[in-house]
Structure formats: C-alpha cells, structure tokens
Design goal:
It is elongated and about 155 Å long. With 714 residues, the chain is an alpha/beta fold. Strands 13-14-16-17-18-19-20-21 form an 8-stranded mixed β-barrel, surrounded by 4 helices. The protein starts with 7 loop residues before the first helix and ends with a helix. Helix 3 (59-70) packs parallel to helix 5 (100-161). The longest helix has 62 residues, at 100-161. This is Bifunctional diguanylate cyclase/phosphodiesterase. InterPro entries: Biofilm_reg_signaling, EAL_dom, EAL_sf, GGDEF_dom, Nucleotide_cyclase, PAC, PAS, PAS-assoc_C. Residues 151-221 form the PAS domain.
Length: 714
C-alpha cells in the first residue's frame, strides 16, 4: 500500500533518517549509513506505535534500547543522541493530531524505558563477555597443560622410535642424550657414545665449511646448518650421514643446546658411486666413457694460466673388416685387448684413456709442458699396437690412425677440440693410416667448410643456386666451334661461385650427384636445342653439340638410360646433339653389366667420350670393347707443347695415341690448350678438336653462340 504524500509513512521515514544521521557517526557497525537507516526504521515504527497506542506500554522503549545494543551500538554517545532525537522529533513526526501534552508525557516515559533497556542489556552483555573470557582462560590453561603433556609424550615417542639418529649436546659439545637409532648407527653403547665430545668426530673427508658452520651455530650466529658428513665407527668402517644440526634457545632467547639429526646414507652413497661408475665408464672395456672424458677435458681446458693439454684421437684401421669377417664377439674381444694396451700407455700423472664408442679411443695428457708429452704418448700408443692380438686362435694385426691436438688451456671448448682431433684423425686415415697427424687450423677450416657445403647441397639444388657455364669445343682443322662442354657451378650464398672440384666429390659421396647430374643434363640439352634454333639459316660446319660429364655414381644408377631418353624426348633434341663424357678410371675393369647402359645410349646415337684418357693406366686393348666414339686426351700429355720446341717424347706419345684412336674410328679431343703453338702442334699431330683458355674460358651460353656465329659468317 503506497502512503499519500507527506503521510504517516513519509514522516516516519523522515524520523528514521534524522535518527540514523545523528547516531551513525558514533556506531561501530560495518554497515553503510543507508543500511543503518533501514535497520532503525522498524525500531522507529515500534516507537511510533507505542506513542499512539490506546493503552500506553513502556516495554516498547526497553525493547528499542536493547535492540541498539544488539546492533553493536554500545557507545554511550549513541544513547545520548538517540534520546535527544526522540525527544525532539518523535512527537513532531509521529504524534499526528493527538493531545500534545499527553504525547510528550508518553515520549518522556519511552525515553526513560529506552535508557533502562539500553543500560540493562549493555550490563548483561558485559557480564556475559567477562564470563566467557574467564571460561576461555580456564579452558586455555587446561588445554596448555594437556598440550604440554601430549607434546612431551610425542617428543619422547619420536625421539625413541625415530628411524634417524637424534642426539642432544650442550654448547661445549658434551653429549647429553641420544636415541636408539643413533646407537645402532655407530654400533656402540649409550655410555660409550655419551663419553665422546662432538669436536672429536672429525674425518678427512669433512667439507671445508663443516667446522666453521659448527662454530657459528654454538656462538648463536646461525640457527641451523645441513651437510653431508662422514664418521668413523669403532671398527674402522665409515658411516656416511646427512647431518642437520639445530640450535635450541631458552625462554630468553639465549643459546642453550644443540640438536643433531643424522640419516644413515652409507648404502645409498655406495649405490650412487656404483651408478656413477656405470654412467661414466664403458661397460665393455672398463675405460672411462665419453661422458667422463668430456668432464676431464672440460676441467683441463678450464685450468689456470700456463697450463696446456694434449689429446690423441685414435681410430682403428680396418676394424669393420674384423667385425664383418669374424663377428662382433671377436671384435669385442679385440677392443678389450686394445683398451688394456692403451691403459698401460697412460700411467703418468695427468694422463687418461677413454673409449668414445665403437673403435674410437682418446688419450689425454695435461700439464705445463704437453708439446713433447703428447707426441710421446702417441708414439707409445702406436708401439702398443704393433704386436698381434690373438682372438679365437687367430693372430690379428691391429693398426690405428691418430689425430693430435695440443695447445694452451682456456682457448677452445671441448667440442671444438674434439672436432679438430676428429678431423685430424681422418686426415691421417686418408693418408694411408697407421700414422698420426698434428692438427692444422687451415686443414680444420677446409674440413669444416666441406662439411658445411655437404649439408647445404640438398637445399642448394631446390633454391636454384647452381648454374652452368660452357667451354667451346673447336675443330683444329678449320677453327670452327663444334660444340661445348657443360661445366656446372655453384653460386653459394657465403662462399661465392664454386667450381665443380669443390662440390662434385661431396655430391658423389652423399648421392646427390644423381639428381644434380639429371638437372645438368636437362639444362644442357635445352641449351643445345636453343643453339640449334638460333643456327637456323646460318651456314655452319654442323649443329652445335653439348658434352655433359657423367660421374661413376651416375654411371651405375639404374635410371641413367631412361632419364636420358626422357630428357631428349621432352626437349625435342636428337641424340646426336649429346655427348656423355665418362672418365677412364670409371671404366677400368668394367664388366658387361656396367657397359650395358653406355652401349644402349651409343646405339641410340648418343656419343660417348672417354675423358682424362691416359691417366687411368687402362689396357689399350680394352678400347675395342668400350662403346666410345671420342677420346679426350688428358692435358698432362700436351703441357710441354705450350713451349717450342715441344718435348719429342710427348710428341711421340700423342702421335701414337692419335694414330691408335683413328685406327679404331675414334675422334680425339685435347683439353687444356692455352697457346697458339700448342694448338698448331696438336693440329699437325692429327687431333680433331680441342678446348682450353686459348679459345675461350667457360662462360655463359650467349658467348658461345656469338663465337659460333662469327665462325660461320667468317
């Protein structure tokens, strides 16, 4: 029901508002002022109803006074302000049209009742709180006593039943109390143990800070410390413990006792030592393994100024053959014997031998003078391998290749040192093995560069970093350009333009030579087609032909013939526009299976050239069975012809080769022509075509077309 404007309800609310504003500043309530006003509104209504009741009852005043106390309005100022507010405004806002004198008398009696109710309730509450505090104090006293008793009982139970050793001593180190676990750990009786002083328990393996921490604790400078400590038992054995010592203070905070907790870690320590040994030693030979060796090497390289190191990296020569022929069990017995011999070579202080894995071993020497020591160590290792090793009744001769790295500490990391030693070892192996080589910074740089090129090769082809240059093939009779040899180059992002000698061997080693060779073949054949299209209408000695080199790896690839056929068909080029060059060394001792792809290509019309002829020491009679149509004479035969007069012996050799080739219907091409005298001499000897810097260096395809165009037009 909504009250009329300025009706009784509105006036009642105004009274409650005035009351709340007067009292709120002196209350302890957490409510806001509007919330407090809402709490006073029903109390104001109770006073209004009592003021206007037919039969007056002052109980309403006592109830309102008590309600103020219950609302935590206990400050005496609250009562004073409330009574002033009721006296001034209750009749004014809630009296209506009644007898004013009677209403004021009733208001006064309500005020007296409110004061009485407020005082009585406040007194009762105070007494109740005092009683509660007294009861709580008595209860707390009982709880403390009970807790103290329980705490002492628990401490005694823990002290006696603990699995770890517990002992208490005074600040002078006199042992006052020990538990059973501590007695069992030391294997002595309580009187014997209590007769000892803490400071007597020293051990050679004590950490340097052990007794410094102890002194700080008993002086009260630290509250506790924790460390690993060893103790001697009466029988001489060693007890290893995790020791925690704490300081106990009295009620005034002064140091009074020391409490020690000891956990027996002897068995755990032995297990950890065993696990550590197994983790750092080779299971087969018992030598330190790669992990242990790197720790020692890192320590050696981190030594102070004036210290040096020497490292020998050994790899057995031909060990794979022993494994393959006699089995891995025999190979393992051989490695064990080699390890024993190597161990006997490194007995001086600062020397160690480790097995890195497989048949790779390392020997390390350290000290101020390792330049000669490491050479002597390598010599001892080589001598130790001289005597044959008996395995399963067989006398096996073992040899090894060693790479040596020596230098001052602090300049290189362990990984860099081992990489240099590894590179040097392979250099010794490449030189024939059974020898040692000293590390060389330039050789290391070249090997690292080779490795970088090897890893970059696969993506280089995808990124289009390869390109082809062409060197003209010139007819010695009339000087006309008859074709060109395709020479692949690598435009490396860091190293610039690289010749084939820098990356072709790497491509052959990784197998990338097959896709790279296929790409070179296709690009070269397309270029030959463009040349022939540009030759249209020009009188020339004949269509330009392209020569493409085949590596031994490509020669044995099963897709050689099909790849060549596909490329010729895709480009629309006739087979006679292509000549494939194969080195003489690749065909030495070639059987029919190896020659079959070349014969198929030759039958199609593709020319086959025998490159570097004269360097492979092949049987000349084999020329009859090889499907070749061109001999490319190696430049070593014609270098003397650059001067006039030429060496008569070289002239006779070349003349004989040319005569033999022509008798077999083979054309002769000469490489490396650099002077006019050389070209003329080769023409007189009957050579057919030549190439070299005298005519043109390798270059872009446009230049070759221009040369051919000049020859054709005169």
């Amino acid at each position: 029901m909504t009250a009329e404007p300025d009706g009784p309800e509105d006036r009642l609310r105004r009274f409650a508002t005035i009351w709340s504003r007067a009292v709120f500043p002196v209350t302890s309530t957490s409510s806001t002022r509007p919330e407090f006003e809402a709490h006073l509104l029903p109390l104001a209504r109770r006073l209004s109803e009592a003021l206007l009741a037919r039969t007056f009852d002052s109980e309403a005043g006592r109830t309102v006074g008590a309600a103020l106390v219950d609302a935590h309005c206990t400050d005496p100022e609250v009562l004073s302000r409330t009574l002033d507010c009721v006296d001034a405004y209750l009749v004014l806002y809630c009296g209506g049209d009644g007898d004013q004198e009677d209403l004021r008398a009733r208001s006064a009696r309500l005020q007296h009742a409110m004061a009485a109710g407020f005082a009585r309730t406040l007194r009762e509450r105070t007494l109740a709180e005092q009683e509660a505090i007294a009861q709580a104090a008595l209860q707390a006293q009982g709880v403390v006593a009970q807790a103290l008793h329980a705490s002492e009982a628990r401490f005694r139970a823990v002290f006696e039943g603990a699995a770890i050793g517990i002992g208490m001593a005074d600040l002078e180190g006199n042992i006052l109390q020990v538990n059973g676990a501590l007695l069992r750990m030391f294997g002595v009786s309580e009187p014997t143990l209590r007769s000892r002083n803490v400071r007597e328990w020293t051990h050679p393996d004590d950490a340097p800070q052990t007794w410094r921490l102890y002194d700080e604790l008993v002086r009260g400078e630290r509250e506790h410390y924790h460390l690993e400590k060893a103790f001697y038992r009466p029988d001489g054995t060693v007890l290893w413990t995790n020791l925690t010592v704490s300081l106990l203070r009295d009620a005034d905070g002064d140091p009074q006792y020391q409490l020690a907790l000891m956990e027996d870690t002897t068995e755990r320590r032995l297990l950890n030592l065993r696990l550590r040994y197994e983790a750092t030693h080779d299971a087969l030979t018992g030598l330190p393994n790669r992990t242990f060796f790197f720790e020692r090497l890192e320590k050696a390289l981190g030594a102070g100024e004036g210290q040096r190191f020497g490292l020998c990296y050994l790899d057995l020569d031909g060990f794979k053959t022993i494994n393959d022929s006699l089995g891995h069990a025999a190979g393992d017995r051989l490695l064990v014997e080699v390890a024993d011999r190597l161990q006997s070579c490194a007995t001086a202080p600062g020397e160690m031998v480790a097995r890195l894995g497989g048949d790779e071993f390392v020997a390390l020497t350290t000290g101020p003078d390792t330049q000669h020591a490491v050479d002597e160590l390598a010599g001892r290792i080589m001598n130790a391998l001289l005597a044959p090793i008996s395995v399963d009744g067989r006398e096996l001769t073992v040899r090894g290749s060693i790479g040596i790295v020596e230098g001052p500490a602090g300049e290189r990391s362990p990984a860099e040192v081992l990489r240099s030693a590894d590179i040097t070892m392979y250099r010794a192996k490449s030189a024939g093995g059974n020898r040692f080589e000293l590390a060389d910074a330039e050789a290391d740089a070249r090997a690292i560069t080779r490795h970088g090129l090897t890893t970059a090769l696969p993506t280089a082809l995808e990124r289009g970093e390869f390109f082809i240059e062409y060197q003209p093939l010139v007819h010695l009779g009339d000087g006309s350009v008859r074709g060109a040899e395709a020479l692949v180059r690598w435009l490396h992002p860091q190293h610039g333009v690289l010749g084939p000698d820098r990356f072709i061997p790497l491509a052959e080693h990784t197998g990338l030579i097959v896709p790279l060779g296929r790409w070179v073949l296709e690009q070269s054949v397309r270029q030959a087609r463009e040349w022939r299209e540009l030759q249209g209408g020009v009188e020339a000695a004949g269509p330009l032909r392209i020569n493409v080199n085949l590596s031994p790896c490509q020669l044995t690839h099963p897709g050689l013939v099909q790849d060549t056929v596909d490329i010729l068909e895709r480009t629309g080029v006739a087979p006679d526009a292509l000549c494939l060059e194969v080195t003489e060394s690749a065909l030495i001792g070639a059987d029919d299976d190896l020659l079959k792809p070349l014969r198929r290509l030759a039958e199609m019309g593709v020319d086959i050239a025998l490159d570097d002829f004269g360097t492979g020491y092949s049987n000349l009679a084999n020329l009859r069975r090889l499907p070749v149509s061109i001999l490319k004479l190696d430049r070593s035969f014609t270098q003397s012809m650059q001067q006039f007069p030429a060496d008569p012996v070289d002239l006779k050799i070349v003349e004989g080769i040319v005569s033999l080739a022509h008798s077999l219907d083979l054309a002769v091409t000469v490489e490396g022509v650099e002077t006019g005298a050389q070209a003329e001499q080769l023409r007189i000897l009957g050579c057919d075509t030549a190439q070299g810097w005298y005519y043109a260096r390798p270059g872009p395809p446009e230049r070759l077309h221009q040369l051919a165009l000049v020859d054709a037009t005169g």
